[in-house]
Design a protein that fits this description.
The structure is a homodimer.
Chain A: H1 5-28, H2 32-36, E1 39-48, E2 55-59, H3 60-75, E3 78-82, E4 87-89, E5 92-100, E6 104-113, E7 116-127, H4 153-163, E8 172-175, H5 179-190, E9 195-198, H6 206-209, H7 221-224, H8 241-254, E10 259-260, E11 263-271, E12 274-281, E13 284-288, E14 292-295, E15 317-320, E16 334-338, H9 342-353, E17 357-362, E18 366-370, H10 371-379, H11 385-389, H12 394-402, H13 409-423, H14 425-433, E19 438-439, H15 447-454, E20 458-461, H16 464-470, E21 473-477, E22 480-483, E23 487-490, E24 495-497, E25 500-503, H17 510-518, H18 520-526, E26 559-561, H19 566-584
Parallel strand pairs in A: 1-7, 8-9, 8-14, 9-10, 14-26, 15-25, 16-17, 16-25, 17-21, 18-19, 18-20
Antiparallel strand pairs in A: 1-2, 3-5, 4-5, 5-6, 6-7, 11-12, 12-13, 22-23, 23-24
Helix pairs in contact in A: 5-19, 10-13, 14-16, 17-18
Chain lengths: 601, 601
């Protein structure tokens, strides 16, 4: 029997209401088993802070019951309810929800199949008594009245600038002033947590300005908004590097961040229940004593340059992709770029445009997706003008995405990439005919999974692949065995004359980068950062269920990692900031099952 | 018979649909009289650009018919329709509408009483073929593909900076880089009109930074948004001066304005069908040849200092309020502030806070309104969190406000100020008991009308009035007859000892300010700027129906005025920009009844 849309809608609403009502009843009765029985045999509950003071995915009724037994009394959840009309599609009822706990107010998303929970996401969005002063709570800005002790906003900011880090210690120190550190800094400021962000470059945005000139964001604008202050309606789809640099610079200023540029971190050691962090601030040594230390160093951290024999004798220019100045001085020269992922492609295309003779050396397969296809088929349901017009706000899109269990993501993503492969079949054929070694991820689950698992191994095509396909960029394959004075030599004996060698050979681990600050012992104790434990290339098991060490308590008290692309950084900056705020306020934050460390690197 | 809400709603919709249908029919048939007959005897049609290429209010059927006879063929309006469910209240049906013309697409607001039009607002919001590249039309940002002639965004901006004003002339030159010039500049950039903004101060926002330290915006944030990039959710209700300065500075940068700071305008003369404008750019003379010249000099232009005998012999500090450095050096000193409007009150309060002995000399009555009351009773239906929650977007609020005929505004505003007077009765009593000379505008129509008529004569109370009421700020009354070495002498013989005299005595006319650039003859020909011709104090008749010379064609071809508070500047910047764009594109822009000039000053 087919139902009308209205009937379907109200059946979905009934199902959601019934489930939430039963769930709340069990929670109120502190009956963990009854609550767990509402979950399907294969089910996933992902909690971000609200129950677990962690970022945790539990699977199946037994794990659900265990989570509840450990947390129910303290959390005291109430008010589980739908917040929008639930929808039904393909046998799945989806409902956006809200609830309250003793500590705060949260939201989330529920998926029901046959009346049982298939996925549940719960997130803590604000702390009671410490709500962000935004919208209806925004500050007055000026003290109306007449006060002999008036301090103006400008005087207040000036005083903060002289005191914070000197006579007054910050609660939080963020190392790394890229978009991650900046987004987190904005959240912390709104929550009234005194924070300093330190950045090696002089100005916010410099890490972008200093990259090769053709660089632009690969993710479209709707995906990229920073917290509180979205890009304006006039902002381009793909931000050129200097434009995003300018935005970050003005954002840091108008969001009133305490941003120390030209500042490097020398060391960080535990001191009492906090840290002693020695920094070099524009030539002057300063010791900061924050209680919490956040490393937001970015994925592009320590450049990895392979130890190839003959590098010292090569007479041309050679540098890692991160130090590539751009193509302008290589017109008519022979450029050999080692690597075949994003940087390699961008740099090869820019060199070709500048009139260089370009060869890309591909050492392993690369997953290539055309930017248009990724945007249309991969992102646009959630992040696009179309999505906005359909009422999918940025927060709603982020919520929907966060509600997809990592375990299921490969199966959910595979059809997207299958569709992409079909849509661009001719394009992929031409690439392969040119000899390019293509993949779609170990299990054909595509780009985003590659990103989550290993942060590399792909190229979002904005033009270079056409050149590879048509030979404009020449392709060579295999490992590099040595450099001569003027050649790159491959394992099959191929000799590539070169005036320039660019090592587009990636970056070391976040863990490695961190060890330069916190020391190897602590870095090893904290372990590998990023990856899911999927058992695929560069992401060894066991299964973690969440991204290792990101945005949540680590094995080192007081040490945290922030980062991710602009969307993840935006979304998780709130939840990390709330965890830090709660600690500052002395609220109890019992962590449910802090993740075990399985790998150091 | 009472109707249900639904019945009322659908009756309103029927009435609006019926009227618009009849109106469109008459327009299509080019039957001006039939269209005019749809208007009530007392009625107002305000058109912003769409029919008249002007900003014009016509009154009554005869004037409506005349407007249509003059414009119908060229405008060719079609598609008049409601865009939202109309509403009915107190016998008035209100409907938001949309329509198209040969040149573009527009919107507006219709009010019907007994089936006839009482007020109609029509605005042209975009030009066909020249739509703003925003939202779904936003630029890609980067040219995907491989192009040997690629120019990056940064290179493009750098090239523009070296060329524009030198080897390439701007279409528009805006003199004045305050919030008005900046808002208009942003609109013009989005419309692809090459524009330079020149500003005497070095950085955008400096005109705010240089003011006395306690200054903050008097209008709340929801009223103040700039085009395209609204203040974030975290922004305070009242922006401190330095914060608004920072916002303007970053806005000019991220909205990619061609902003020449440290640049003054020496002269502007007609040259061909454009201008030769000599400017001093940071010491270097540059001649600019724009086709269009916009003066956005601000209301705070030429300081007026009364010619009081003895000024030269006074031994203390004396300066106009615009040059007041702030109160810090006057602790324990005797300060006499001449004037009783906004600047006078702010400066007196700040001096009191710093421990000075303060006397305010009131020479004429002042309209005082408490900031809270103004916000709650005056603005919050349209500009507040509550309004936003009720679906009143900034554009909708601006539209509703623009749809109120100036002729009716006093009668509409009077009850608001009556309510304010009642709410704050005790406060006003105390002020009057302290001797303060209060008014509510000539016809009790309150602050906004005073603003529109004369731009002065009021104080939005953010704390000073309490000090006047309780004597913290001493009050003296009457004209100043002379200064001695150390006293201010009033006409009644009162002698006020003084170490400091601040002339909070206002500013000259915009016309006066303009004459310094375009010469007295041209300034006189163009005439008085601002004011409605209400026949009230400082706003002599005859009735203009619109603000003199603002945002529309003036008596001088190619000369325009932009400005107003942040809300007016935001709203009218679009319509002025469209008029300039249309001229740049060579589109026909026949102006219906350019306003006559009745006053020079």
């Amino acid at each position: 029997m087919t139902q009308t849309v209205d009937q379907q809608a109200s059946a979905a609403a009934s199902a959601a209401d019934a489930w939430l009502s039963a769930f709340q009843q069990a929670l109120t009765a502190r009956d963990a088993d009854a609550a767990a029985a509402l979950f399907a045999g294969e089910s996933y509950w992902r909690d971000i802070v609200s129950f677990t003071w962690n970022i945790t995915t539990v699977e199946g009724p037994a794990e659900v019951a265990d989570l509840l037994r450990a947390t129910l009394d303290q959390v005291d959840p109430v008010g589980f309810r739908v917040t929008e009309e639930p929808a039904e599609a393909d046998g799945v009822v989806t409902a956006l929800i809200a609830f309250e706990t003793a500590a705060g107010r949260g939201s989330g998303l529920l998926r029901l199949v046959d009346g049982k929970a298939f996925t549940l996401l719960t997130t803590l969005d604000e702390l009671k008594g410490h709500e962000e002063p935004v919208n209806g709570r925004r500050p007055n800005g000026v003290r109306h009245g007449a006060f002999r002790d008036r301090v103006t906003w400008a005087e207040d900011r000036a005083r903060e600038a002289t005191e914070l880090g000197y006579t007054v210690q910050p609660e939080v120190l963020i190392v790394g002033g890229g978009q991650g550190g900046i987004a987190l800094g904005a959240r912390l400021r709104q929550l009234g947590v005194p924070t300093i962000i330190i950045e090696r470059n002089e100005r916010p945005g410099d890490s972008w300005r200093r990259r090769y000139k053709s660089l632009a964001l690969h993710d479209p604008v709707w995906y990229d908004h920073l917290p509180y202050l979205p890009f304006p309606a006039s902002w381009p789809v793909f931000s050129p590097k200097d434009k995003i640099g300018d935005w970050l610079e003005m954002y840091a200023k108008v969001m009133e961040l305490n941003y120390w540029g030209a500042t490097t971190c020398t060391s960080a050691v535990r001191e009492g229940d906090g840290w002693a962090v020695v920094v070099d601030r524009d030539g002057a040594e300063v010791t900061l004593r924050p209680r919490q230390l956040v490393l937001a160093l970015g994925a592009s951290g320590l450049p990895v340059v392979p130890d190839i024999p003959g590098r010292d004798r090569f007479r041309g220019d050679q540098h890692h992709s991160s130090a590539h100045p751009g193509p302008d001085r290589y017109k008519g020269k022979k450029a050999v770029v080692i690597g075949s992922n994003n940087s390699a492609h961008d740099i090869c295309a820019a060199l070709w445009e500048a009139g260089a003779d370009v060869t890309m050396v591909q050492r392993s397969s690369t997953h290539v997706v055309r930017s248009d296809s990724l945007m249309d088929l991969g992102l646009s349901d959630l992040y696009s003008e179309r999505a906005l017009a359909a009422g999918v706000t940025t927060f709603k899109a982020d919520t929907i995405f966060a509600s997809l269990p990592f375990r299921l993501l490969p199966a959910l993503q595979a059809p997207v990439y299958h569709a992409i492969r079909e849509r661009d079949a001719e394009y992929y054929d031409r690439l392969e005919q040119a000899g390019f070694d293509l993949d779609f991820g170990d299990d054909d689950s595509g780009l985003f999974l590659k990103y989550l698992r290993r942060g590399s191994g792909y190229y979002i095509d904005v033009g270079a692949s056409e050149l590879v396909a048509n030979g404009g960029i020449k392709l060579a394959k295999g490992q590099v065995t040595e450099l001569t004075e003027d050649e790159v030599v491959l394992e099959d004996g191929t000799r590539l004359p070169a005036d320039l060698v660019v090592y587009a050979t990636g970056y070391g681990s976040m863990n490695q980068l961190a060890s330069g600050i916190i020391g190897q012992d602590m870095a090893d104790r904290v372990g590998k950062v990023w990856g899911l434990g999927s058992g695929t290339t560069k992401d060894p098991g066991p299964w973690e269920g969440e991204l290792r060490n990101m945005w949540k308590p680590t094995a080192q008290e007081g040490l945290w990692f922030h980062g991710g692309n602009l969307a993840l950084s935006r979304y998780y900056s709130l939840y990390l900031a709330l965890q830090l705020k709660a600690r500052m306020e002395g609220m109890p934050t019992p962590v449910y099952k802090r993740a075990e460390v399985h790998h150091t690197e």
